[in-house]
Amino acid sequence: MEESEEYIITQIMETLKNSDIGDRKKFVEKILESDKMFIYGVGRSGLVAKAFAIRLVQLGLKIFFVGETITPIVEPSDLVIIVSNTGETMSAIQTANIVGRVGADVVAITASPHSKLAHASNMIIPLEVKLDPTKSGIAPLGTIFEDTTLIYLDGIISEIMKELGQDEKSMRGRHAIWV
After folding, report:
1. Domain chopping of the chain, boundaries
2. Residues carrying an active site annotation
């Protein structure tokens, strides 16, 4: 267990260290400029995307998760953020292509900056994970990407909090009561 934790944390730190600070600032700007945002991801990437969406709602932003029954139509002025490790998940690619045709701005968060999803996006946040194939048993499938993405997006939330002059108290006032 300790070996797995150490490996995962080390890989997350390496991946984040190699990510572009300029991309982070541009991403925050896109979020702050958007009147309405849509978030999408499938599987565990989708769960990470939903965690990000919840935090954005707690910041008072207008957020929808693609595929929910109450999600409105995407319009040209909207921002769509899609999380996909491989960038080859068919529904993620289709979503990017459809909303791109509408004229919405598409941001792909992926470990594969040359993927089909990346090509269908206006901006790519590459979180390129360098995996050791001998360690797949202690960090299977997309574990490193998903954990890295969660931490990356939590860091983005921190920056948005500062930009909006928000704090935990103001966010708590928008925190859903889960029953």
Report:
1. 2-171
2. 146
The single residue listed with the structure tokens 């704090």 is 167
Overall pTM surpassing 0.70 (yes/no): yes
Q: Give the CATH number of domain 2-171.
A: 3.40.50.10490
Per the listing, tokens 């979503």 go with 95
Who's near 40: CB < 8 A, 6+ residues apart? 46, 49, 65, 66, 67, 80, 81, 82, 83, 92, 95
Strand boundaries in the chain, DSSP class E? 37-41, 63-65, 79-83, 105-110, 123-126
Q: Per-residue pLDDT tens for 57-71? A: 999 999 999 999 899
Note the pLDDT tens digit of each residue in 106-128.
999 999 999 999 999 999 999 98
Rounded distance, CA 93 to CA 34, Å? 22
